[in-house]
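REQUEST ID: PR-0412
SUBMITTED BY: lab tech R.K.
PRIORITY: routine
TASK: structure prediction, single protein chain
INPUT:
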Amino acid sequence: MSSKLPRLRCLYSPPIINTSFAQPISSRSFATEAPEPNPSIRRRPTTFRDRLNAGPSFSEFVSSPPSAEFSTPIATNHSPLNDPPTSEEPLRTALVGPANRKRQITRLPTWLQTPIPTSPNYKRIKSDLRGLNLHTVCEEARCPNINDCWGGSDKSAATATIMLMGDTCTRGCRFCSVKTSRAPPPLDPHEPEHTAEALKRWGLGYVVLTSVDRDDLADGGAHHFAETIRKIKDKAPGMLVEALTGDYAGDLEMVDLVAGSGLDVYAHNVETVEALTPMVRDRRATFRQSLRVLERAKGAKEGMVTKTSVMLGLGETEEQIWEMLKELRKINTDIVTFGQYMQPTKRHMPVHTYVTPSVFEIWRQRALDLGFLYCASGPLVRSSYKAGEAFIENVIKKRKAGRDVSMLQELGGLERERIVQDV
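STATUS: complete
OUTPUT:
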């Protein structure tokens, strides 16, 4: 009878404890020792975290040679750019991914590894740029040379490539990490003045200006670019200016406008060989259009130095590089640079080949044999390469000095003729 009664309990009664499942409660004072851990309770494995904590610090990681535990050598007989090829420098590979989906990747070669920028001068230049709302291609394109270019002993020894017209491009090249948009923000009307003021403050002898492509503007931003160059020349007449421009959608009148604004070097990059251009660059950029831009710039001003840059490691062949160099010499391009393509993110084109320093040296010599005035070639060389700028600066100054001497000789000859006539 009692088993059929509903199991009711007063709300104010103490809780019912089921003694059949109760565990003995042990109590101890502070003087007793802790009980032994229960071996049946397993701790969650933290093998990776333990190994990570026991490994090198971050500063040791970026400065020390890689551990052989995660690398597999691949035979090669090339060494870094600054070291003589006296010993083998093997490329390294590693297996990454989950245990059931491992894949092999090639580690970054030692000749492409650069230190993380931490110098005081780097911080000062970055502070100046942010204070004036300026952008640099060094940051936006993740250039590996930023520590070398910005980390000089003083600002006058540093080099920064100013990127005009904002930090957002209207094109989407597969190698470039600059932000893209069909409708970027409007141009900053104060940018030419701010740029000229910053460069005057640094006291540089040579400066490189570049810009994003602005196909949303009727002139592609050419007037804004030209105004910036004029402002720089007004504030620092002795400063040499290199302009790395886009193709202005093939509008050669805009090329004339920028070339006639007072710059000293007109640069426009073909980026890669003609066969790979459709896969590497935006569909609106073509190899032949870039050649027309360089040719027009060369004829826009007497003594204009023209320059272009090429990335290697995208899958190009030797014959294609030869053909490209010959096409550039046909239009009297003065300077060419070669550098290693490095994939900015996983969304961009993968690296096809890590070209060794000795191969870069071969192409440097071949370019000079074809008649180029100068060629900077190396894994870390970029379009605005610091060492190349020093050479170009000297060339331009010598050319100007030669023209001045010629003018003085002509004036001297006219003066002598006038004296003879007076006698």
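NOTES: The chain has 13 helices and 13 strands.
REVIEWED BY: pending
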